[in-house]
Amino acid sequence: MIIVLKAGVTEKEIQAVITEIEKQDYKTHVMHGVERTVIGAIGDERTHRNLESLITWEQVEQVMRVQKRYKLVSREAQPKSSVVPVREVPIGGKKIQIMAGPCSVESESQLMETAHAVKEAGATILRGGAFKPRTSPYEFQGLGEEGLKLLAKARDETGLPIVTELLSQDHAEMIAEYADILQIGTRNAHNFQLLIAAAKTGKPVLIKRGLSMKIEEWLLAGEYILSNRNPNLMFCERGIRTFETYTRNTIDLAAVAAVKSESHCPVVVDPSQGVGRSDLVIAVSKAAIAIGADALLIEVHPNPAEAWSDGAQQVDLNGFKKLMDEIRPFIAAAGRE
Amino acid sequence: MIIVLKAGVTEKEIQAVITEIEKQDYKTHVMHGVERTVIGAIGDERTHRNLESLITWEQVEQVMRVQKRYKLVSREAQPKSSVVPVREVPIGGKKIQIMAGPCSVESESQLMETAHAVKEAGATILRGGAFKPRTSPYEFQGLGEEGLKLLAKARDETGLPIVTELLSQDHAEMIAEYADILQIGTRNAHNFQLLIAAAKTGKPVLIKRGLSMKIEEWLLAGEYILSNRNPNLMFCERGIRTFETYTRNTIDLAAVAAVKSESHCPVVVDPSQGVGRSDLVIAVSKAAIAIGADALLIEVHPNPAEAWSDGAQQVDLNGFKKLMDEIRPFIAAAGRE
Amino acid sequence: MIIVLKAGVTEKEIQAVITEIEKQDYKTHVMHGVERTVIGAIGDERTHRNLESLITWEQVEQVMRVQKRYKLVSREAQPKSSVVPVREVPIGGKKIQIMAGPCSVESESQLMETAHAVKEAGATILRGGAFKPRTSPYEFQGLGEEGLKLLAKARDETGLPIVTELLSQDHAEMIAEYADILQIGTRNAHNFQLLIAAAKTGKPVLIKRGLSMKIEEWLLAGEYILSNRNPNLMFCERGIRTFETYTRNTIDLAAVAAVKSESHCPVVVDPSQGVGRSDLVIAVSKAAIAIGADALLIEVHPNPAEAWSDGAQQVDLNGFKKLMDEIRPFIAAAGRE
Amino acid sequence: MIIVLKAGVTEKEIQAVITEIEKQDYKTHVMHGVERTVIGAIGDERTHRNLESLITWEQVEQVMRVQKRYKLVSREAQPKSSVVPVREVPIGGKKIQIMAGPCSVESESQLMETAHAVKEAGATILRGGAFKPRTSPYEFQGLGEEGLKLLAKARDETGLPIVTELLSQDHAEMIAEYADILQIGTRNAHNFQLLIAAAKTGKPVLIKRGLSMKIEEWLLAGEYILSNRNPNLMFCERGIRTFETYTRNTIDLAAVAAVKSESHCPVVVDPSQGVGRSDLVIAVSKAAIAIGADALLIEVHPNPAEAWSDGAQQVDLNGFKKLMDEIRPFIAAAGRE
Q1: Chain A interface, mutation test: which of D4, D21, D31, D44, most A Cβ atoms within 10 Å?
Q2: N or C: which end of chain A has fewer CB within 10 A?
């Protein structure tokens, strides 16, 4: 770490900082600048005590990290891009995968109609929420296990693997029994106990970016999966919270390129949540592919106006077919399939 | 709800919207403006289907709520301010309570030294983390149940009730056995399963504001406690995430006045997390009291530079005494004790 | 406008609001809901007094607009997309235009080398800053009129029209003499006097989005150009300020699709400012084209490490050639030239 | 500056960086860590070329500043707090000054009524806008010079010095003729040409914080005043833009303490803009005083519901009297007058 001292500190004050740093088993290296003295603390920042607390000392102005905080998710640890196998559907390879389906599973007919339609239009994975995290306790909370059973049935009928959200540690085993990918939602991206529970099921895990999660924190959330011995991790950009209100969230597409550059894990983009309005979903899907997404996650509903949750961002069956048609040239332009 | 149609829609398109609204059991009321037609959907928005999905229709421009989404936490439901009893310490009454203690419980000596010192300086509740949510899996995760036992011992010695964080549903019972207040941390403020588990213990619950939680969402998180039959709820402002980097978070003190005005529940302020740097904690504490906080939550450590977590924001024992001295005139100015 | 009253107001309080609204020459329309009364104020919101101040009345809970605040920039005013003529280079037509050049004009050799290189690689417009808005008064402020002369010379040599920033009303005439497009920078996007001065030169104007400008405000800034009788307006997305620090700004590509949908004016994307790091510029350029940008604005420098301003975000001459090669398939996929 | 190289760079790559740094007249100092090499560039960062562009080099991972970018506004340059003289009203001394008056000057009667009322209630400076920056070109733009004349007349009648906004370089002289303090509004906080023009009038300047201005940038904006030989500078916190919509802006009161700690210049707080709703203005005023503000800026209107601009945030004459009464104990608690 680098410790910058204030201008005008005494030799004794410098020495006190050095003594404290060495007490934490770092070696020190002092640099005298024109105005300020800088101390390098040499040692592995991930195994030594964090020195950031030194900032509470009167004579210290800044404490800066030198190393990256994440390890296993980084390209330094594994330069080659990972491919996550989901039944016969590999995510992160040459083929761009399309995950599609309703925000919530509402009924057998709603799910089956959607599942068949998205498959026919070219989707390769089925999404659907059985347990829903809702801002208000008075809103529809999902069908629960009944929803999982319907998803499994839809998989049987269409052959599409399924992705569904895990929102309680208590459900980890149950959901792992039905699902092919466990999704960690944006509101739980910082729920480390849930991340660990998901990792331990051994199933592929998709971590949505938290509402106000920095890229570094998101990578560290992923580190919770890999360090719990589950190698099958995907990141999913779904928009962050900003001052803009035209869209429900601000989708940070540059983050896709950033994570692809920092990490070997596949990156999925969720345009539906990202903008929260169905009229922009196709445009964002094209851009997501152009910037390097490995997969898309699209909310599709036979009748969005009557959806039990988040209708505003779901496209209808025709809209999804149109989307699949319109993204095709961009998949080709990206050299993908 | 209010549905605004686009300029230039046909009578038939208007009729289609009306039919859909009435299908959801709302009554309708049509208003023709100079440029746009507006439809009022009359019915309780909390028990009827949300009409926001109508925005997916071509002819619809805006859908706006009329009612507030929260009920039990609101002053409409209970005009008089609630007082939460924590052993003999009432929160929300005339006396401003000071919760103080280390970020993490690190050892018996560290905790006991702090507990005695904060009590002597005037603190009325002891805080301390036994289970810690950490951004990186490689950071100190807390002493666990061992930490809870030390907290209970400190309570026995000092008489101070204790507040500690609950971060896993699996720990709800265990923590409720030791703690007098269950704290829901900022990273779990949207973890509804955890909120329900906390509510069900019957212990007082303190909900920190999520990193990027709107005031309305925060009140709705509180609604999860009250609607699960636990009346003892406190909100705690601890800073939100913005573009500013001088402070770790941006403490939103106006939110204290806002929540006091919307809700009958007590509001606590955490200046330590709020700014993330100990040099500003006293100043923020004064402002928190001036704006109407019912209690403060202050991180105190005998030696912040060697703290195992968040040292930069902890004040030392002398700093805490100074804080208590300096806030006294503001407590008096606020007409509190 | 729609005025929502609080629950439990008296008939007299309702009447007082109605009287006030009618005093402002709106017609009123009352709707009684299950819990709240809603009053519609019927009249053109752009020519009548704004009623938002009614919120200061005890009995009023919300005041909501019904109409859009912008007029001339909207597709309601002009459904067909505008094409802005810049010498022989039309912006907003089928061909995607590439504006490229250094952040600052530093010297004749630096500019000429860059101008010839970008032209050869396929750029159609030359960018370069002569007057630079700098956060610190101690940083390089641009070559001033000397820089403009060099830009004119580069145009003579290469035939490329030039775009350069206007940052002072006092320079409007001078810059209009040299430049083909006047750029309003992000820090001046809310500087209405400058917008008016730019409009009045009659030259095409490019308005960058302000650091924290909502899409609605950005469109209204454009309204200042069109309502000052200058029809040649372009919007330029260049990233907004958020909590993320990995990139210098967060580029909001969905805003491109949003503005294209709300407005008939062309939209330009500036990936260089948008991310502030040259390693992500190509990826963002591809996405910008995929999502519907009419032009790109790329910072190019022969030796970014020695640039006098914003070196981190400038690509070098080879990097620009690579960019032009890599975006080509996406231009084709978008059905553009 | 500190340059951190990537893990695994070769000796030759390190040498190339050193050569480049020395070319810019810095001395270098190399530190080999466990994983990364760090180079210190020793030299005054404010007079040498900025090395941040080195980040474009393949082998460079981070470039970090060591020195602060501001000089004249800092407490390092002047440890003692400045007092800005405004006629007989010193700002920054023991006495807390209250600036009050309407958002816009609308008419002689409106202004005179307000001026007399605020004076009687204890205000010491009169505020009022004559030139208004408005988001929409269709909104009231202020009375212009006519408004300035009315302000001067109100000063003659009440003896209160006046503060009014400067929003165009062209008006600097005219406004300086009438006003005692020139206010730079939030939308122009990054308009450096305007800052210079304001500084050159020699009148005291009050810089509002930009909508999304970091504290460091705000201090640097102040540096534009002091480095243009005008010593009479005040900063004014008026809320920043965040995701929260309950309040119009998020007032960052900790920034008051931060600026007081970094700079010797007085700090003013504008609660009216800060929250944008009159019901919270008194509460925020108390907190502002508690946290160390030297003055408040309060919008007052005889009839806010009919104000020509920003009625929602203006208090009426009685509200202002109540405010003055309620803040008194906090002024005493702060040891001020």
Answers
A1: D31
A2: C
CATH 3.40.120.10 for domain B2-64? no
Instruction: Specify whether the backbone of B210 is left (phi greater than 0), alpha (psi in -120 to 50) or beta.
Output: beta
Question: Over the stretch A99-133, which tens digit does the pLDDT of each residue have?
Answer: 999 999 999 999 999 999 999 999 999 999 999 99
For residue C234, pLDDT over 90 is answered with yes
Exposure on the CB side of residue D70, measured as CA atoms within 13 A: 23
Mind listing the pLDDT tens digit for each residue in A60-73? 999 988 888 999 99
**Cβ-defined contact of A245 to D245 (cutoff 8 Å):** yes
Q: pLDDT tens-digit profile of A32-59?
A: 888 889 999 998 887 788 888 898 888 9
User: Rounded to whole angstroms, what are the CA distances from A313 to A299, C85, D18?
Assistant: 7, 37, 53
When the pLDDT of each residue in chain D is averaged and rounded to a whole number, the result is 95
CA torsion through residues C304, C309, C314, C318, sign: negative
Of C109, C22, C104, C18, nearest in space to C57 by CA: C18
Residue A138 with chain B: CB contacts under 8 Å: 46-47, 69, 71, 223, 227
* The two three-digit tokens of residue A77, written as one number: 């640890």
CB D38 within 8 A of CB D3: yes
C191–chain D Cβ distance below 8 A for any pair: yes
What is chain B's length? 337
Tell me the domain boundaries of chain A: 2-64, 84-333
| Helix ranges restricted to H, B10-144 | 11-23, 108-121
Neighbours of B25 (CB within 10 A): 12
Residue D115 CB contacts under 8 Å (≥ 6 apart), including other chains: D101, D126, D154, D157, D158, D160
- Write down the ipTM of this complex: 0.94
Model confidence at C35: pLDDT above 90: no
Taking Cα atoms as reference points, which of B314, A288, A282 lies closest to residue C260? A282
User: Cα(A111)–Cα(D88) distance, rounded to whole angstroms?
Assistant: 76
Contacts of B325 (CB under 8 A, 6+ apart): none
Residue of A134, A168, A212 with shortest CB distance to B211: A212
- Within 8 A by CB and 6+ apart from A109, the residues are none
Same fold? B2-64, B84-333? no
* SS3 of residue D266 by DSSP: coil
Subunits with 3+ Cβ pairs within 8 Å of B are A, C, D
The continuous run of DSSP H or E covering C64 comes out as strand C60-64
Q: Which of B56, B70, B305 is nearest residue A57 as measured by Cβ atoms?
A: B305
Q: What is the per-residue burial (b if ≥16 Cβ within 10 Å, else e) of B108-137?
A: eebbebbbebbbebebbbbbbbbbbbbbbb
Q: Which of B234, B185, B193, B233 is closest to B213 using CA atoms?
A: B185
Q: Among A28-42, A137-151, D177-191, which stretch is predicted with the lowest mean pLDDT?
A: A28-42
Of B34, D140, B28, B1, nearest to C41 (Cα)? B34
Instruction: Please report which helix (H) or strand (E) contains residue C97, including its range.
Output: strand C97-101
Structure tokens at B181: 């207040």
CA atoms of D288 and D276, how far apart (whole Å): 15
CA distance D164 to D148: 8
CATH of A84-333, one of 3.30.420.10, 3.40.50.261, 3.20.20.70, 3.10.450.50: 3.20.20.70
Measured from the Cβ of residue A277, the count of other Cβ atoms closer than 10 Å reads 17
pTM over 0.90: yes
Run of H or E residues at C233: strand C233-237
Quick check: A280 and C258 CB within 8 A? Answer: yes
Chain A CB within 8 Å of residue C325 CB: no
